[in-house]
Structures are given as structure tokens and as C-alpha cells.
Design a protein that fits this description.
It contains nine helices and 14 strands. With 265 residues, the chain is of the alpha/beta class. The chain has a seven-stranded mixed sheet with strand order 5-6-13-7-12-11-8. The N and C termini lie far apart (50 Å).
Length: 265
């Protein structure tokens, strides 16, 4: 069974239009897996058929219909699947095609997107940008749960400052999701932690780096090495800056010296 993504834009919105398309699919023995509106005046469908000939015949017929304009007909990409599932497309940067943008109201879509990435095999380096308390770490953890993967913090400020210097048991597994805070790791003076990060980066596994722009400042990596960059904002026009984050980090470290120590394994 082959799966295909079909998207069309309505040219003449008349009663029974969707029924006509569904009837045509039925006559050609093509199953509709999922259907949803994906944009203003656009509808997307995930289709499934036993062979390509059925899909080719369908494409040929609908391309002659005056009431709709076919906008996409292809093997489904991840963005297509999520668009049908959630009713809208993920926003993508026009200049940098590996950068995807979300706002806090879209946390469900973000978690679903990352979970699908986490289910894929092999190495993947993912950077996530965003201001404090926007939901970065929580989204990564939720996506790990959704993907049925174990997550391992190498550095974090989620509860208290966490700086790991070693892993134990099955934590050093290719199947785990490794999470680190680029600001915490960049400011760490613990050589054991930095060595652990270097070892983890060599694993053929999925790594998620919060604040990737800060992480690359004292590492051998560049932004070009990241497979995906995710930006999460409270509002669409929010500016992501690092001055406040570094100041918060310095205050956290000062608190640790005064007796509020973080975890250091």
C-alpha cells in the first residue's frame, strides 16, 4: 500500500464538492486516511492505494476540474502529515529552510513535530532557541515521552542547575535523547563535563541543544552542523536575546556558591 499527500485549493466553493472528490477516490479504490483543512481555502488529504496507477489516474482527473486547483500531490513529508493532523502548516524560515518557528500557543504541534523527529533512527543534532519560561525543556521532555524514548540531561536549569560529569547504566545508549543547555555547558569549567559532552556528540544518537548559538561559541561545532533549528516564542514578534539569559545564569551560579548548589554528578 502506497501513501500519498493530496492538497487542493478551492476555486469555486459549491455544495457537494468534497463529496464528489471522495466519490471519485472511492471509485478508483483509493482510501482516505486523514482529511483536514490546512490553510485558508485549502484542504489536505493523506491517501492510500494498492498501486501507483490508481493515484496517477486520480491526479489526471482532478487536474481537469475547474472547481479546485491541485497544489500538492506527492509522497507525504513530515510537514504534510502534521498539517493534516493539526490543521495548519509549521512555519518555516524563508531564508534558512532548516529553521522552524513556533509560538507558545502551538506547544502541542511542537511536541508532535519533535516526537516524529525523535522516532527516526541515527544521528540528529537539533537546536532550540527561546527566552526563559517559554517551554523549551518541557517540550523536549514531552516529545521524548511521546516518542517512547528516554531523555538524559547533560546540563540544564529546569529545576536546579544540572551539570553531569558522567553517565551510569543504560544512560549511554544510542537510543536515548541527550539534552543540554548551551549556556550552562559553555560557562562550565568542569573538564569532566566537557569531555562527557564531546563523547555524547560523537554518538550516533539524537542530541537537543538549548541555546545553540551560545553552545557553538566554545566548541568545534557551527550552526551549519545542526540538522534542525527550532525557535519558540511567547509571541510571533518576540526577539530572542541572550543578555538576560546570561545574567540569570550568573545569578544562579552565585546562588550555588552561597549554598544553593545544583546537581553535579
Amino acid at each position: 500500500m502506497r501513501e500519498w499527500y493530496f492538497e487542493y485549493e478551492i476555486q469555486i466553493n459549491r455544495p457537494g464538492l468534497l463529496g464528489d472528490i471522495a466519490s471519485l477516490l472511492g471509485m478508483l479504490r483509493v482510501n482516505i486516511v486523514t482529511i483536514n483543512g490546512v490553510d485558508q481555502g485549502r484542504r489536505g488529504m493523506l491517501l492510500r492505494a494498492e498501486n501507483d496507477e490508481q493515484l496517477e489516474r486520480f491526479e489526471l482527473i482532478v487536474s481537469t476540474m475547474e472547481t479546485i486547483q491541485v497544489t500538492k500531490f506527492r509522497e507525504p513529508k513530515l510537514r504534510d502529515i502534521l498539517a493534516v493532523r493539526h490543521g495548519r502548516y509549521i512555519q518555516r524560515d524563508a531564508d534558512d529552510r532548516k529553521t522552524f518557528r513556533f509560538v507558545r500557543d502551538e506547544l502541542g504541534l511542537l511536541v508532535d513535530f519533535m516526537a516524529e523527529l525523535f522516532k527516526q533512527e541515527g544521528h540528529k543534532l537539533i537546536g532550540i532557541r527561546g527566552m526563559p519560561r517559554v517551554g523549551k525543556t518541557e517540550s523536549v521532555v514531552a516529545a521524548s515521552v511521546s516518542a517512547n524514548k528516554k531523555w538524559v540531561f547533560l546540563s540544564s536549569t529546569m529545576i536546579k542547575q544540572t551539570v553531569r560529569s558522567q553517565l551510569a547504566g543504560d544512560e549511554f545508549s544510542d537510543n536515548n535523547i541527550f539534552i543540554l543547555d548551551g549556556i550552562v555547558t559553555r560557562q562550565s569549567t568542569d573538564e569532566r563535563h566537557l569531555q562527557l559532552v564531546r563523547e555524547m556528540m560523537r554518538l550516533p544518537s539524537i542530541k537537543v541543544v538549548e541555546h545553540p548559538d551560545m553552545f557553538i561559541q566554545q566548541s568545534d561545532y557551527t550552526i551549519e552542523d545542526f540538522d534542525y533549528i527550532i525557535e519558540l516564542r511567547h509571541e510571533p514578534d518576540e526577539e530572542i536575546t541572550y543578555e538576560m539569559m546570561e545574567k540569570n545564569q550568573m545569578m544562579s551560579e552565585r546562588g550555588n556558591l552561597e549554598g544553593f548548589g545544583g546537581f553535579n554528578f
